[in-house]
Structure formats: C-alpha cells, structure tokens
Prior knowledge:
Number of strands: 6
Radius of gyration: 19 Å
CATH superfamily: P-loop containing nucleotide triphosphate hydrolases
CATH architecture: 3-Layer(aba) Sandwich
Mean pLDDT: 88
InterPro entries: P-loop_NTPase (IPR027417)
Number of domains: 1
CATH class: Alpha Beta
Shape: globular
CATH topology: Rossmann fold
Structural class: alpha/beta
GO molecular function: transferase activity
Distance between the termini: 29 Å
Keywords: Transferase
Strand order of the largest sheet: 2-3-1-4-5-6
Protein name: Sulfotransferase
Order of helices and strands: EHEHHEHEHHHEHHHHE
Amino acid sequence: MSAIHFISGLPRSGSTLLAALLRQNPRVHAGMSGPVGGMLSVLQQEMSARNEYAVFLSDAQRERILRGVFEHYYGPEYEAAVIFDTNRVWCARMSLLRTLFPQGKVIACVRDLPWIIDSVERLIQRNALSPSSIFNYQTSGTVYSRAEGIANGEGLVGYAYNALKEAFFGDYAANLMLVQYDTLVAKPQLVLDAIYDFIGEPAFRHDFDNVRFEADEFDARTGTPGLHAVRQRVVATPRTSVLPPDIFQRFQNDAFWRNPALNTRKVRIV
C-alpha cells in the first residue's frame, strides 16, 4: 500500500493550493477534502457499545476495518507512492491516525483568523446571487452573524481551530507540522522542501507558474462557487479586509502558533 499522510488545519488557509502543488510530483496524490474522515467516524460509532453486536468485535478487528477503508478507497486506480488525504477532522484524530498509520504525518495549514473570516465573507459577497451551504443557504444574516456562526465551536472555523489546538498541545504533536499560509504563497518551494523532509521523501522541483486544480462542480453544488479555486500562479496578493474593524480585531490575537513559549511540543512550523 502507498504511504499515507494527511492534510488538515484551518479552512481558507491554503490546503487546496498545497494539494494542487503536491500533485505535480508524480510520486504523490493529493486532493481536496474527501469522504474518508466521515466514513471512519460512522464506522467507529457503529463498532462502539451503542451497537449491541459490537461485543463480537475485538480492537484488532476494529483496527483492520478502519485501515481497510483507506486501503480500499485508495485502491489500484491510485498508483502514487505517497497519498495525502485531506480533512479538517484529522487534527482531532491524532491518536487514531497514530494507531492506524504510525509513520503517517499531518500537515496542518494555518492562517491568522481575521483573514480566514475575511476570506469566507469575501466569498459570500462575491456570490451574492447564490446562497451558500456554509450558512445553511440562509440569506438574512449580517457579517456579524456570519462571523459568529463560523467561529463558534461547531462552526467552519471554530471546530477546525479547536482541533488544531488539540493536535498542537497533545501527545502526538511529533507527527504534526504547521504550514503558514503567508509562507506558502511567498516561499512555496521552501514549504514543499520542508514537507518532503518531514515525511522522508526526496525533494521535487515544482512549477509555481502553472498550478492546476479543478473542483468547479463540487463548489457549485454547495452553493459556493470558487470555494476551492486556485490561481494558476502562486503569488502573495496584499488586500484590504472587507470586515468591520471590530470583527477583525476580535480575532487578531488568536494565532497561538506564533508564540514560541506555547510550542512546548516543539512542533515544526514553516
């Protein structure tokens, strides 16, 4: 079976761009968020004590079944030597990943929270005629209610942020690397070289002027065109926030990974 690694972290922080770059390497397969994380969650629930027949399952059987999801999902049609599965849930499943794939690494994409919320709001405003699944297709909210909705513990940003903290401060942080969005768009080869070193793969020279990734149909079905859009050329683009100043300031100090004193697990940050 191919070596399995994972892309996770915060939304709107470069995970799709990172996957688009990694797949330039013929040894690597990477894509946008997929169904494997959800499938594992459902299976674990059904193999737990909530199911009276779980008494017939041993932990060894559970482990084989869960690993088999990866083995069968990434079947013969995936010929890459290295596979990255993308899902924001992986940061909250570090102990499970360590059990199933002890050599597997998690690459978590991070970005300052005000700019993540700004990116979501900009996307919503750009698609004014198409209500988004991010907000349950509701059209009556304001920028304040939308920011609150995605920042709460079960929201698009809040859940991922809490999962990231769980991974960063937890016992399995040695398997975690953080990739900052600003570094990825400004120094992409540096980021990719660090990832290859982290997972034990030989370096590969990427083309940052011809990046390709297509997910238009998926984005359209979620009512959020452009959700996974990737520019052809990797470049840092300065811009002014569309958020009111009080929203921007509310989240301005939440980038805990920027404080070296908090990195007690010595997580590698690029």
